[in-house]
Amino acid sequence: MSKFKVKTIIVGPFMQNCRFIFNEDTREAVVVDPGDDALHIIDKINELKLQVKALLLTHGHIDHVGAVQALSLKYQVPILGPQSKDAFLLENLNYQANLFGLPPATEITNKVTYLDKEEVIEPIAGLKLQVLKTPGHTPGGLCYLCPSEKFILVGDTLFRGSVGRTDLKGGSTKDLLDSIHEKILPLEDEIEVLSGHGPDSTMEIERRSNPYLQDFED
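and the corresponding C-alpha cells:
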C-alpha cells in the first residue's frame, strides 16, 4: 500500500496545477511547480501539516514558478530543476510577467539546482523520481517519472487530449513530439499523467484518444 499522497491546488490566472507529494506518515513533502499564490500554497501546507523538503520545477515559465522565491525563502529548501537550458526563463521573470500582462514578478535569487542528467532523485525519503529530459514546450523542460507510485509529472509537455504550446521563445514542435514519442509514449497504460493544467489522465487514455499521439502508433 502506498504511503505517498498527491494533492493538487489550482493557482494563478492560468489555472496551474500546483502539486504536493508527501509521505502520509512523516508528512515530508515536495512542492511541484508552485506557480503563484504563495500565501494560498502556504495555507495548504499548514492545513496538511507538511514539512516541505524541496521545490521541484518542470520548466521555467512564470505560471509554474511565480511563487518559488517566496517559498524557498520561507522554508529554506532546495529548488530542483528544470534543465539549465531554461535558466534564461527563470532569470527573466519580470519580462515574462510583462509579456503576459501580469503584475511584476518576484525574481528568483536563491540557488537553483538545474537537473541536466537523466538521473534518479530522491527529494524526500523513499520518493524516487526518474528525471526525463523533455524539451519542446521549453528548451529545458523536464518530466518526473515515479515508477513505484505509477505517476509522471509532465508539466506542460502533455495534457489530457492535447500537448503543450510551442510558440513561445525556445519552443519547438519537433522537439516536443520527439520528447513525447521517446520518453512518455512507451510508459505503461496504468501510469497516471499529472499535467500542469487541466484534468489528470492516464497513459491508456492518452494513447487511445489524444489526437497528437495517434501519428506515433504503428
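(Above: one complete record from the training split.) Residues 173-184 form the longest helix (12 residues).
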